Target: DUF3078 domain-containing protein
Amino acid sequence: MKQNFIFLSLTVLSLISFSVSAQTQTPKDSTWTSGGNFSLLINQSAFNAEWQGGGTSNYSANIIVNYNLNYKKGNYTWDTKFLGDFGINKTKDQDFYRKTSDRLEINSVVGRQINESKWYASALLNFRTQFDKGYSFSEDPNTGEELRTTQTEFLSPAYTQLGLGFLWKESENLKVNFSPVTGRIITANKKFTTTPGYQDGDFFGIDQNDWIRTEFGASVNAYGKFTLMEDITMENILNLYSNYIEDPQNIDIDYTMNIVMSINKYISTNFTFQAIYDDNAVNGFQIREVLGVGVNFRL
Model:
């Protein structure tokens, strides 16, 4: 009886949310400025065999890194943003964990101011991939065993964009880059394009037996960060791309919204929404959202 009481007490407390947030900022009058956020969210629930209310033991974890590095001297500016987001979930009845988020992205823009205006001649670098393998899951019809098949992995695919154009910059929190001359490279491990029955373009537009796809087009990259109300900020990141060579009307869209609500000094809520349209990947929108609540510590 005593053991059951202890176990049930732990079960009541088993839904745990823990978040760590660290933010740094160099002096504003410095040539180099930097700042960012790191957060870790962990959730866990457990139930014993006698629990009658229903439920499945599970755990999940999510790590988010959002870091900015900015340079400003004379007529020159250089802004770089690093985004990392990785999360997993595992329930008791599953043989394998599932990913809840997986993103690695670097955006970097160099600009030279034009006649002391808000416009800059600019060069853009964008790199995007994922940290871990992505799987599709199925069940063996004979044994009932859970099966998984690798669909993607680190650097497969990987997107690299290089563009020349113009940057409009109101501030570090509001800017738009137009690159009418943009080259994009999509790369992947050849094993994804050499499977039996593979057709040209099946894996993110890459041809059979190849590992690279090259495109030439135009891109728009916009960033806006706003204070909605006291202690609530919203960050918007929009990337658009059109391939001049093939189906220029099919514009690739990647939009991310991050909302941070600071409830008090120790507690905050993070909400992330992302929508992607890329007809080389899938004929439709890819949508994800992540909501996390936890205790914050500033380091």
